Amino acid sequence: MMSRNYPEVEDVSSDAEIGVEQNDMNVGVGDCVNEGDEVNVEERDQAVEDGVNVEVEVEDGDEVNKISSSSSSLIEPFVGKEFDEVEDAQAFYKAYARRTGFAMRTNHTRLSKDDRKLILVEYVCSREGFRRESRKQIERRIPEPAETKIGCKATMCIKKDCQKWTVCKFIREHNHELLTPRSTSLFRGHRGVTRVQKKLILTLNESGVPTRKIMSVLSKESGGDFNVGCIGKDVENFLGNKRRKLFEEGDAQRLYAYFLDRQCKEPGFVYSMQVDENGCMGSCFWADARSSAAYQYFGDVVTFDATYLTNIYKMPFVPFSGVNHHHQTIMFGCALLVNETAESYIWLLRTWQEAMLGRAPSTIITDDDKAMAKAISEVLPNTTHRLCLWHILQFPEHLAHVYNKFSDFQKEFHHCIHETITVDEFEQEWSSILAKYGLVDNDWLQNLYNRRDKWVPAYLRTTFCAGMSTTQRSESMNKFFKDYVRSSTMVSDFVHQYEKALDARYFKEKEKDVRTKSTRAIMKTLWKIEKDAASIYTRKSFMIFQDELFNSQRYIPTKVGKDGESKIYGVTRNDKEYPIYQVTLDSGEVKAICTCHMFEFVGILCRHILCVLGKKSKLDLLPHHYILERWTINAKSRTILDIPTSDGHVMRQDDPMLRKSKLMMQFYDIAELGSQSIQKCQHLSLALDKVHKEFLSMEQVEGEKNLEDENMSLNDSQMFKSQVVSNFSQVLQDPPRVATKGRPKSLRAKNPKETQTAKKRRCSICKIEGHAKNNCPSVRL
Predict the structure, then answer these.
(1) Residues 6+ apart with CB under 8 A from 64
(2) Contact 526, 546 (CB under 8 A)
(3) Residue 31: predicted pLDDT
(4) Going by C-beta distance under 8 Å and a sequence separation of 6 or more, which residues neighbour residue 626?
(5) Helix (H) or strand (E) holding 351
(6) Which is a Pfam family this sequence falls into (predicted)?
(7) Is 64 in contact with 169 (CB distance < 8 Å)?
(8) Which end of the chain is more exposed for a tag (fewer CB within 10 A), N or C?
(9) Rounded-to-10 torsion of CA 135, 136, 137, 139
(10) 689 pLDDT more than 70
(11) C-alpha to C-alpha distances, 554 to 500, 544, 549, 558, 643, nearest whole angstrom
(12) Which residues pair with 105 in a beta bridge?
């Protein structure tokens, strides 16, 4: 019997490091069945993990055929080779299989009859045996997979000899073609996701990175696709297993636990959740302190929209959003609704208003939804309800015949809606269009006209909307979430993605704050009012004002009359006669009103008023009554006593994530130096092994010290868990899948562009339509 050779075992086991974590099998007493003389466990199919046959020894000294190795190479198994542990033998044979070009699996084990300890293990080629006939005869929804088992006899068998494991049987020959070592990395038996890769995969998946891009990152980090150690399917299976475990815990219960945890850590965090009679989660709403505070500063105009489905239960995502002093989208809370009925919206608006300290917005913009309109009229009776102009004008099915018949209709209709300044102008053009195109009896247009005060710009120019005419602010959040969530997203995962969206939004706001305070705007004119505005407004607001001021030079004011003490000016562009904007200027104060009503609608002076003020030489300072605090640099300087201040998740210096990040940055530099040569790599590897062992010893000591504390806190935690569940009558169940609104596909009316007849191809040779010159019949003749 030959002596052990440890260096060879260590050397080859390192080659099989990739993929061992998942595919290695712990063979022991737990793997065996109940006592019996001999038990054979049937081989599993190729689609399942490696099968294991378990056998209990009946007689000692069973005779085993020994086949001597024909090779004396130390990297090849041979009868008599010894190992300290069964794991060493398995790693050795797996490394040998990878170098040789096949995959291995554990096929047979034997337990001692006396103490039922493992005494024999047989490793075989993954193509050993044959597919069971019963597996071939079952009915399949998908085609039967190709056979992989073809009766290969390649084997390595080890047997317990005192304290060592000895190779007692080895067959090298295979009955199939062997692959190259590079290709064997694609075998299932040599694939696996390592612990480090799992953490990276989870991080990337939480950030919305798809599987194909995750594989690209792993390939880059590993130095090539063949060095990754796993394929895209392995990543999908890993993420799928994680999701299944979360489903077992309960999606709704995890969401509830998340809300409770957030509320404990952040006093300003609020949430509300409905539960039906069956204990299933219904609609839920949540908002943090940042959202509540932002509403107090910028909550004069709010948009909310329920057209985006983001989760496995098809629950509509309803974000409350607005615009901050940098003209960025900002969130005022979020909800997931179980349905889109008026009752759900009434509950949501009442809950949201209560969370926002009872303050109602001055204007709210929504889709043209009857349930929403009913809820707003009941909960927010004093709020101006405006309909999203973009959704209102999506009417191809109602006016398709007019679009197709009259080419000028779209241009004239657009001018009537968007470019009429006064109500009288709109009414005149509307009536003219209906009469011209025979639409006086069109019920759909009549319905829109009856609600014109909710969506026509000419009627809403005097209503402050912060420049918004659509629910685009809500839809921009929908677009943001599109990269992070999909139809299979669980609600407990969605709240984490929402938190990321908030953090990203507030980070961008901080960037704009720093940019405004640390830079100086470029002046375009010599008027002092421009410098004054630059010191007051945020950079984005100033750029809007500057554009109006600069373009005011292109307009000519003409005095057209008087209204008591006020003077009326007609303002037109110097190269056009129309349109004429009327500016009424008070004689006593620097106060003016323009028919474009930009200040009333946006909150920033228009070019027409600035043109008149320039003629009167009153462009030294920006009048205080034309400064809206919400557009200024100090818009958030006011303290709100009822809401705890919060900057989101601010990590302390002793936070584990910060410590880990600091160590990773240090180790990147060390790893870069260690990879420069073999000597440095070996030195670093030995040092890391030493530090690793020291850390394990420290953990053992700390674990014993903290054992008593954990036992003491166990009762408290169990009491807390029982209190969490006791807030409801029973354990919170996941919500059912619900049907959502939306017209049936069969009733969808196509856009006119979709119904246009495609232009036929005309041959350049025979000038006949229906074919091109490359297949012209006259050429073939």
Answers:
(1) 157, 159, 168, 169
(2) no
(3) 37
(4) 599, 605
(5) helix 342-355
(6) MULE
(7) yes
(8) C
(9) 80
(10) yes
(11) 45, 16, 10, 13, 47
(12) 124
Specify the DSSP class assigned to residue 582.
E
Q: Tell me how far the alpha carbon of residue 196 is from its chain's centroid.
A: 22
- At 178, list the tokens: 């062997």
pLDDT of 487 reads: 59
Percentage of residues in the chain having pLDDT higher than 70: 77
Q: How far is CA 2 from CA 10, 40, 66, 81, 483, in A?
A: 17, 33, 15, 6, 60
Rounded Cα distance, 607 and 186, in Å: 68
Provide the CB-side half-sphere exposure for 562 (13 A, CA): 4
The residue that leads in pLDDT, 702 or 504, is 504
Check: CB of residue 246 under 8 Å from CB of residue 309. no
DSSP 8-state code for residue 599? H
Burial class (CB in 10 A: 0-12, 13-18, 19+), 581: buried
302 has a pLDDT exceeding 90: yes
Query: What is the spatial distance between Cα 277 and Cα 457, in angstroms, rounded to a whole number?
Result: 46
pLDDT exceeds 70 at position 488: no
Measured between alpha carbons, how far is residue 148 from residues 107, 129, 153 in Å?
15, 9, 14
What is the 3-state secondary structure of 318-332? EEEEEECCCCCEEEE
Task: Return d(Cα 37, Cα 137) in angstroms, integer.
Answer: 31
pLDDT band at 769 (very low <50, low <70, confident <90, very high): confident
For 317, 498, 703, the CA distances from 243, given in Å and listed in that order, are: 21, 19, 30
| Lookup result for tokens 């000692």 | 60
Among the listed residues 635, 636, 614, the one whose alpha carbon sits nearest the alpha carbon of residue 550: 614
Q: What is the DSSP string of 173-239?
A: --SSPPPPTTGGGGSGGG----HHHHHHHHHHHHTT--HHHHHHHHHHHHTSGGGSSS-HHHHHHHH
Question: Which residues 6+ apart lie within 8 Å of 559 measured at CB?
Answer: 567, 568, 569, 570
Q: Which amino acid is at 479?
A: K
CA distance 5 to 82: 8
Model confidence at 186, in pLDDT bands (50, 70, 90)? Answer: confident
Q: Which residues pair with 384 in a beta bridge?
A: 363
d(CA 186, CA 771): 49
> Is the model's pLDDT at 633 over the cut of 90?
yes
Q: Which helix or strand (DSSP H or E) is residue 124 part of?
A: strand 118-125
What whole-number distance in Å separates Cα of residue 449 and Cα of residue 470? 18
Rounded distance, CA 11 to CA 9, Å?
A: 5
365 with 386: CB under 8 angstroms?
yes
| Calpha distance 307→476 (Å, rounded) | 12
Average pLDDT, rounded, for the chain:
78
Cα distance between residue 170 and residue 93, in whole Å: 11
Q: 693: helix, coil or strand?
A: helix
